[in-house]
Structure formats: C-alpha cells, structure tokens
Amino acid sequence: MIGIFDSGIGGLTVVKSIMEQLPGYDITYFGDTARTPYGSKSSETVVGYALENTEFLLKKGAKIIVMACNTVSSVASDSVADNFNIPLFEVVTPATEKAVKSSGKLIIGIIGTRATVKSGIYEKKIKAIKPEAKVYSKACPLLVPLVEEGWLKKPETVMIIKKYLHPLKVRQIDTLILGCTHYPLLKDKIQRKIGKRVAVIDSSIAVAEKVKDFLETHTEVDNLLTKKGGFRLFVSDITEQFEKTARATLKRNIFLEHVKL
Ligand code: DGL
Asked: The pTM is what?
C-alpha cells in the first residue's frame, strides 16, 4: 500500500492526483488534524510529527511513503530519510523540476505557509538547477483557514488572493508554484488573479507524476504494492468540518478513522 500523510486533510489533493495517476493502488492516508497547522510551527516540532506519522503508516503496511505536506517536505524530509530506509517522496522537488522546465524567463514565484517560505527550500532547489533564476516567495497564511472553512468561492477569499499575489505580479513572474497542499483547491482563482500567461504548478500533480515514473522503473517496489482499490483515511481528530472538506476534496464518500498517535 502507498502511505500518504499531511498535517491535515489538505493532503487529500495529493491523494486525488495519485488516484488519477495510479488508479487501483491501495492507499492509506493519515491527516494529523489534531496537531494541524504545521505551517506556523518550529522545524523541530514538525520533524518530530513527521517521524511519528511515517512510523504509523509503516506499521499499517505502507511500502512507500508520500509526504504530501509542503511544510514537512520543506523542513523535515531529510530527517525522515535519515531515519527510515524506504522509498520516500516529498512534494518540493517534483514541483521545482516542473517549474524550472516550464519557465521561459526563469522568473518564478512561490506561495506557501510561513514555515515553507522561511525554509527557503524552493529557492535553494531552483537555484541548484538554474543559478541564474530569479525566485520570489510570498507566505499566504490566511489561505489554509479559508480553504478549511470551505470559503473557496467567497469574494473575501478572492480579494485576499489578489493582495497576496500582488508583489509576485509586479515582479512579472512567468511561473507560480502552489507550495501548499490546500492551494490546488483555489487554483482557478489563483490563475485568474496572477494572469493566464503565468504557468501555475500544482505540487500535488507533480508528485503523483514522480511516484508513477518511479514505480514504472522500479518494478521490484511496484510488486510490493497491493492494487485492490482500497482507501483508508485516518485522522488524529474528527470534526464535521474535516469530514465535509475531505468529501469535497475527493468528491467521493469517505469514512474517517480516528487514531491517537
Ligand atoms: N499541509 C500544509 C502545507 O502544505 C498546510 C497546512 C498547515 O499549515 O499545516 O504546507
């Protein structure tokens, strides 16, 4: 089974993309809804959570792990890789590679949580591939709670998006990375506000493509994965709002299982 975890239910955008790229693969998801958000916590705290979440999924039988959370991918992926010897995927590298490929002018914008932006990881990875690239980041802390409230189409949300994107727009970026699990749910609005000439890179799609490519070339790992279309969804806290958002994200009926880590 493929194990996927996130700080909450936003990582279901990654589940959705993986279900599209790899239909039928068994998936177990853990959303750390009791300890969310990670984006405003210290790196040490996020590393501790990421190690616990990985261990939980491995105990459930995961053979590969996808860290769907951009904050975890930014500050904790090296620590997880140091502690567990399994195929491990994070969302920053695939999105970075895709952005560099798509950007003609090499003027790239990134939006994410405060922790992701503070880590500077996207900038580091982009410059490792193209040192001449110009990279501009903007933390958008209000977007996660707005998505969790289901305010996807409210005028207030659109206004806030416009305000956050303004400094990137004036830099004339030609590519924008959605560096947070929740932002794909606002992709239409973000695209409209940043302009249709800007390529918007969805890290949930980029990581799903990466996992698919890996399994195609590593059949020994692919053979370990069960493919019965199973999906289990564990969360560390259950609320009505989480259930609603999870259902809206996946557009299917879901059953949340409660687990205490
Ligand atoms: N999952 C987080 C991310 O992608 C967003 C929510 C949070 O702050 O925990 O960065």
From this structure: 0.94
145 shares its domain with 221: no
In a shared domain, residues 186 and 96: yes
The total number of structural domains in the chain stands at 2
Are residue 133 and residue 105 in the same domain, yes or no? yes
105, 118: one domain: yes
State if residue 38 touches ligand 1 by the CB under 6 angstroms criterion. yes
Question: What pLDDT, on a 0 to 100 scale, did the predictor assign at position 149?
Answer: 84
Q: Which helix (H) or strand (E) holds 231?
A: strand 231-235
Does residue 69 carry a catalytic annotation?
A: yes
Cβ 70 under 6 angstroms from ligand 1: yes
Boundary residue ending a domain (186, 203, 220): 203
Instruction: Compute, in angstroms, the gap from residue 48 CA to the centroid of ligand 1.
Output: 15
End-to-end CA distance of the chain: 20
How many Å apart are CA 198 and CA 177, to the nearest integer?
Answer: 10
For residue 158, which phi and psi values (nearest 5 degrees)? -65, -40
Residue 162's pLDDT band (boundaries 50, 70, 90)? Answer: very high
Closest CA to 106 of 131, 137, 124, 128: 131
179 DSSP 8-state letter: E
Distance 125 CA to ligand 1 centre (A): 19
